[in-house]
Amino acid sequence: MAPIERITIFKIPNEGDRKRVLEQYKVLAKTAVKDGKPYIIQLAVGLSVPDPRNKGFNVSVKATFASLEDMQYYDEQCEAHKALKAVAGPAKEDAVTTFFENIL
């Protein structure tokens, strides 16, 4: 099975909230485990470069998982992701997530 690439973009109006979300992603990168082992293959997070095409979305995240099962674990059971959602949920005005099987 090919890796699963997950893209999430956030619209977070408040600069302080953006900083808190970015810091929480740093925590997630160090603490996200499945069966006691890190399971996110790669995580890239940052502020979006200002551009009209962003339509106000200003935080971008790309996560790579070995399988759809690992991504589902992230969504449903990962304690580090639950902690992230507790910070990002109230801060965000909007968010969009998409994922795909990498064909390359």
TrEMBL record:
Signal sequence extent: none
Name of protein: Stress-response A/B barrel domain-containing protein
SUPFAM superfamilies linked to this entry: Dimeric alpha+beta barrel
Pfam families according to UniProt: Dabb
Residue span, Stress-response A/B barrel domain: 4-100
Superkingdom of this protein's organism: Eukaryota
Cited SMART domains: Dabb
Organism (species): Aspergillus tanneri
